[in-house]
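Reopening: P-type ATPase A domain-containing protein still failing for me.
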Amino acid sequence: MLWLGRAARRYPLVAITVLVGAAATVAAALGAGDAARWLCIAWAAVVVVIQGVGMVRDVLRGHWGLDILAITAIVATLLVDEYVAAIIVVLMLTGGEALEDYAAGRAKRELTALLERAPQRAHRELPDGELEDIGADDVRAGDVLLLRPAEIVPVDAELLSEHAVVDESSLTGESLPVELTAGDRLLSGSVNAQLAVRIRATATAAESQYQRIVRLVEEAAESRAPVVRLADRYAVPFTAVSLLIAGIAWAVSGDPVRFAEVLVVATPCPLLIAAPVAFMGGMSRAARHGIIVKGAGVLEQLATARTAVFDKTGTLTGGAPTVERVLPAAGVDDDELLALAASAEQYSSHVLASSVMLAARERGLELREARSASEEATFGVVAEIDGRRVVVGKLAFVREHAADAREASLESGELAIYVAVGDRFAGAIIARDPVRPEAAATIAALDAIGIRETVMLTGDAWPTARHVADELGITEVRAECLPADKVEAVHAIERRPVLMVGDGVNDAPVLAAADVGVAMGARGATAASESADVVITLDDLSRTALAVRIGRDTKRIALQSIWLGIAISVALMLVAAFGIIPATAGALTQEVVDLVTILWALRAVSRPGDPAVPRRASTASAPADRAPVAR
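Support: Ran it again with your exact input. Result attached.
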């Protein structure tokens, strides 16, 4: 019964209306019909005054609300002594907020679940080995934490124990447990499995992966879609049509009861609630599939997108290139070439840098520290190592420092990293970054839902770019692009709205330039995620096509809900104009129309054909107080 008390405190007018209705029913059953009548009339008059003051205030602010219909209906039913119908309309009017909150709660269930699942507590290890429980927001970088079985990782961290098994399904879509070893990164929001482990925080809660997703979710409900604002603009004509039909019915019949009977079925619910519920449902549906949409307006832009633009590395490809071979220049040892290149690449944020360093480590080569280093984004890095200047990057960049640098012979799909030492060309490192297995199907899916123009933007050379585009069926390619070139290319596209999909820090400007920027943020490219309108938290490119489909489904359902409700209301008004629907029956019918409209809008929450949602891996474990700790 506690929930009844909470509901009554939150919606006092609804609670009083229900009590008045119940009291009037009892009074009428006991033969006190006049008492029941005056009780309903008195409370209805109070509600008219309360709502009327708010309505006048809104009109003075330039906002025409639909409450005028309900208030007019209440007054009309009271004047013709239809007090039962009046109290039903009062319940509809006062219960509108509660009904909208309930429907919105159903619609945004997945968004709410994400917020509720945010890590709250952490166990910090003190210098004497004791533990203290602190809030997740109090964790600082460098803190050593104990993570017990089945607990959520509170902040991004480094694993100190020898091994751990975690569930990252809510972040990456990987349904199988992920095995980690000492030094590996743990993402906040992932779940520890069998053993208690020690971790070192590498970021505060606010800077961690899951909290960034939470902030995106909190932003998602802020904006209103153009369809929702369009529904607001329907308020004036709908009110005018309703009053016109009611007035004509009264004038032709000469019976003022007809006026009241028409207005009690003129429900504004489809305009007030249906569209917002549909868009909230669409955002919730997207969140369930790892797609965070930052607002209802973004969802509508997705629905109308006509061109899709993709970055190549890390988006269409896996973003984890592997070194295929090393091609040293004459007189240069291949191990020395790889060691120098990897030592310089330590100071680069480019995805290829990790591949070069990994290849060097696999050969057992030692990476050296640089006395100085600087990176030119998308071009390359220059470092002073062992007293020598080492330049690693694109051919044109390396040629600025070594005029004898020459282009390597590449096979289809390969890419080259060029190296110069001093002012001499030292050789090239050849790598391959295979396309994502789902990339071709994603392009085909976009084409099937109406996005037939696809563009790939990349800083890679033309042969590599053309090979990827041909393999995937992409219609247009822009290669050897700088970040500014990508922004200019997006601005120049005529078929709009434009959808831009990327994942790296260098994609942030072009994501912001597109009509809808989509960031592949499974591993947290912060700048790109913050610039984007949509963040895909799973490492799955096919969610791009799903996001567009969700946008189109949502807009269609929202418009259907609006027009379905309006059509039913107008039809009922026309029937009521002939005196076929009594006022009380009409008021009850109106509530049924509201329910039908909301249920139709809630269809946006899930649709047939959606991919399966990854199931969380089992985290059954020993009790927390005696769980073994992996060291």
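The chain is about 50% helix and 15% strand. If you still see a failure, please send the error message rather than a screenshot.
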